[in-house]
Amino acid sequence: MTNPSMTTDAPHGQQAGRKRHIAVIGGGITGLAAAHHLIELANARQINLRVTLYESGEKCGGAIRTVERDGFLLELGPDNFITNKPGALALCKRIGLEEQLLATNAKHRRAMVVRRGKLMPIPEGFELMAPRNLYALARSPIFSWRGKLRMGMEQFIKAKRDVEDESLESFVVRRFGREALDRLIQPLIGGIYTADPSKLSLRATVPRFLDMEAQHGSIISAMRHEKKQRAKAVKASDAGARYSLFMTLRDGMQRLPDRLVELLGDRIVTQRRVASIETIRATEQVQSRYRLQFAEGSHEEVDAVIVAAPAQAAAGVLHSLDAKLADELSSIEAVSSAIVLAGYRRDQFAHALDAFGFVVPSMEKRSIIAGSFSHVKYDGRAPKDHVLLRAFVGGAMQAALLEQSDDELIAQVQREFEELLGVKGQAMFMQVQRWPRSMPQYHVGHVKKVAAIRQFASQHHGLALAGSSYDGVGIPDCITSAEAAALRVMAACETMP
User: Fold this and answer.
1) Residues 260, 303: contact at Cβ < 8 Å?
2) Residue 76's pLDDT is what?
3) Cβ(293)–Cβ(274) under 8 Å?
4) What are 306's strand-pairing partners?
């Protein structure tokens, strides 16, 4: 399918003048989405624009990578995206991937948590950090009666009135107690951010819960109010198709970056690493521009730049342009993780595998952070009567595990599958995918840090930053960040003489 908005660099319309050149640095989903949106904007606004995306590696796509093996469809990076943040869903529709959208299976739509070596269902209605259904909480074997009573008492805990940032650990223990954190909330959050809850900023990750406390005084009360409002909205709505909370693409998540690569065509230059960015001073005829210095020694002059690389890499590229900006970027830490994928026959398992997966509290002292039953979660991930598992290892609280070899990681994961799932015999295959320093850590103070970064960046006309290091780590967050950056640099180009 051809997207008509991508057929030309831009038509020569009312604002045809000197062709502006915008560079995008980084070919992950953020850079691809930014470059694509620049072309969309140029065509819509009749602006004469040239866009070039520079990727240091051999191919684009970043952490989104899908491969086929022995009839299995393996996601080596993210396996889906959330739909209550619209960025990814809207982009898929615009670029002709709507028919590829695949919802989670309705059957077994639940998750489990490890307690004392056994998988137990997460209480119905438990939403990331809080119980929506107190009856289900009371029946759950995950918590002791003392822990359950402490969580129920949240409705009577006074709200914190100061506006200072707070760690996730501090917030949860203050409102729900230590057992709630250790037994369930830490592994649920850990599965998303691979972070240490004592350092993780609540305001930067799940500010919704801070807002609930501020507005309702209690998270449980706020969730009850939300439930009522949601029921009213659903009853009053006669809208069309609704999507499941999580979705993927039928042929794998890599279809998303591959489609963007197809649409961008020769605007993408691979195996070209930008080493630094410098300012070319303005003249009477031309406003300040940028010189991209490439690692092999050549250079390119452009009117504007979107840096869509992780914060640490962005810091290196921008140091000669603005040392203070680079220092702030360098202070955003990132941790490493690995995914271990395994294919089995279904008859090797004692466990029913009647869920989408499980999370593992750090207090269980296991190697796995979380596990996913890919063949249950989405259709077409494994041959009939076979099982596809994904295990997540590493992160901020288990960094030392990644010092092991692939064979050692595989042996540990295999052993834990045996203990937790009752699997017998060897896997058909096990494959390790490492992601070094891939997950930015949103520590307490992150929101202020990002504000400072944006303030420094705003002093450079036509410069924008985008990616998972700033406002969210998911695919929709990256796409939203990319499209906002495209709008900023396009506005800068429109003011250029």
Assistant:
1) no
2) 98
3) yes
4) 24, 464
The reported pLDDT for the residue numbered 8 is 47
The mean pLDDT values, 10 residues at a time, for the chain of 497 residues are 46 56 97 98 91 97 96 97 95 97 93 95 87 88 95 92 88 96 92 91 93 91 82 57 83 98 97 94 62 94 96 96 96 96 97 96 95 96 97 93 96 96 96 96 96 96 96 96 97 81
Residue type, 324: K
Q: What is the 3-state secondary structure (H, E, C) of the chain?
A: CCCHHHCCCCCCCCEEEEEEEEEEECCCHHHHHHHHHHHHHHHHHCEEEEEEEEECCCCCCCCCCEEEECCEEEECCCCCEECCCCHHHHHHHHCCCHHHEEECCCCCCCEEEEECCEEEECCCCEECCEECCHHHHHHCCCCCHHHHHHHHHHHHCCCCCCCCCCEHHHHHHHHHCHHHHHHHHHHHHHHHHCCCCCCEEHHHHCHHHHHHHHHHCCHHHHHHHHHHHHHHHHHHCCCCCCCCCEEEECCCCCHHHHHHHHHHHHHEEECCCEEEEEEECCCCCCCCEEEEEECCCCEEEECEEEECCCHHHHHHHHCCCCHHHHHHHHCCCEEEEEEEEEEEEHHHCCCCCCCCEEECCHHHCCCEEEEEEHHHHCCCCCCCCEEEEEEEEECCCCHHHHHCCHHHHHHHHHHHHHHHHCCCCCCCEEEEEEEEEEEECCECCHHHHHHHHHHHHHCCCCEEECCCCCCCCCHHHHHHHHHHHHHHHHHHHHCCC
In terms of pTM, does the model score above 0.90? yes
Q: Which two tokens stand for residue 465?
A: 């930053």
